[in-house]
Design goal:
272 residues; globular; 7 strands; Rossmann fold
Length: 272
C-alpha cells in the first residue's frame, strides 16, 4: 500500500467520523456495500484496508466470519477498540495478502485502491483470495466532491493529496484485465451538503441516482468465474514387437466374412 496512515491521520479520521453529517454519508456507503454483497450466514468476508473498521460494522451479529487487514497499526488500534474480538485483524499490505487462494467468499476494498502503491496488484490479490466476489468502493474521480477535494489539496495539505482517484470505468477495466469478461455491476450514491434533511437523503439514495456515473461514492462488484488449471499428459507408446499369428487381431472385414461363411454353412445343414 502506497501511503500508510500515521497517528495524526488516525486521530483526524476519528474526528471526521464523529461528525453527524459524515456518519450519515458512511451509513449510505455501507448500505450500498451490504446490498451489493448480500452475504449469507456462515460466509467469510475479508476487508482489505479496513482502517478503523467502518466497513465491517454492518456485518456484525449476522453470523458472518469477518477479517480485516490494514498496514497502519494506529488504524488497527481504532478498529480493535470498536470491534474487539468479533473480527480477526491482521497488519499487512493489499499487494501482498498473507492468505491462501480462495480463503474467503468475498473481499472488499473500500477507499483502499486510492492509497495503494500498485492498484492492479492490490486488486489481483483480492481476486486471488476471494472465490465468489470482490467489491471495490471508490471516491469517484468525476464527482464534484472529488474534484473539490483535489482543488482543496492545491491550497492546503490533506490526506487526499496522497490519493489517486479512480472512475467507475477504470475499475471495470482493471477487473476485465485480470478476470476477463466476468459478471460485473456497479452503483453509486450522491452526497449532498444538507444530508440531514430526510427528503434529500431519500433522493440521494434513490434508484435513479444509484446509476449515476457522477455519484460521489461508487461501488463496483465483480464475480470471478472459476477457472481450472490443467497440465498436458505425455503419452508414451509401448512397443511389444511383432504379435504371434495365433493372437493376430482380426479386422472388421475379416470378421464379417467369417460370420457370413458360418451362416451359409448353417443354412445348408438345415436344408439337409
Amino acid at each position: 500500500m502506497g501511503y500508510v496512515f500515521d497517528f495524526n491521520d488516525a486521530v483526524r479520521y476519528e474526528q471526521w467520523l464523529n461528525r453527524d453529517s459524515n456518519r450519515q454519508v458512511v451509513d449510505l456507503e455501507n448500505q450500498l456495500l451490504v446490498e451489493m454483497l448480500h452475504p449469507r450466514f456462515g460466509e467469510r468476508i475479508l476487508d482489505i484496508g479496513c482502517g478503523g473498521g467502518a466497513s465491517l460494522m454492518p456485518f456484525l451479529g449476522k453470523g458472518i466470519q469477518l477479517t480485516g487487514i490494514d498496514p497502519s497499526p494506529y488504524m488497527l488500534d481504532i478498529a480493535r477498540r470498536k470491534l474487539g474480538h468479533r473480527v480477526d485483524f491482521y497488519q499487512g499490505f493489499a499487494e501482498d495478502l498473507p492468505f491462501d487462494d480462495n480463503s474467503f467468499d468475498y473481499a472488499t476494498l473500500c477507499l483502499t485502491l486510492e492509497f495503494a502503491d500498485d492498484s492492479r496488484k492490490a486488486l489481483e490479490e483480492a481476486c486471488r483470495v476471494a472465490k465468489d466476489g470482490v467489491f471495490v468502493g471508490i471516491l469517484n474521480k468525476y464527482a464534484l466532491k472529488a474534484i473539490g477535494r483535489r482543488i482543496q489539496g492545491i491550497f492546503r495539505k490533506t490526506i487526499f493529496n496522497r490519493a489517486r482517484f479512480f472512475s467507475i470505468g477504470e475499475v471495470k477495466y482493471l477487473f476485465t484485465a485480470l478476470l476477463g469478461d466476468v459478471p460485473m455491476e456497479w452503483q453509486s450514491i450522491s452526497c449532498f451538503p444538507v444530508m440531514k434533511n430526510t427528503l434529500i437523503a431519500d433522493v440521494a439514495n434513490s434508484r435513479m441516482l444509484r446509476k449515476s456515473p457522477f455519484g460521489a461514492f461508487a461501488g463496483i462488484m465483480a464475480q470471478p468465474v472459476p477457472r481450472f488449471r490443467t497440465w498436458p499428459l505425455t503419452l508414451r507408446p509401448v512397443s511389444t514387437g511383432a504379435m504371434p499369428s495365433k493372437s493376430r487381431p482380426v479386422g472388421c472385414t475379416e470378421k464379417e466374412g467369417r460370420f457370413k461363411v458360418e451362416a451359409r454353412s448353417q443354412k445348408v445343414e438345415g436344408r439337409r
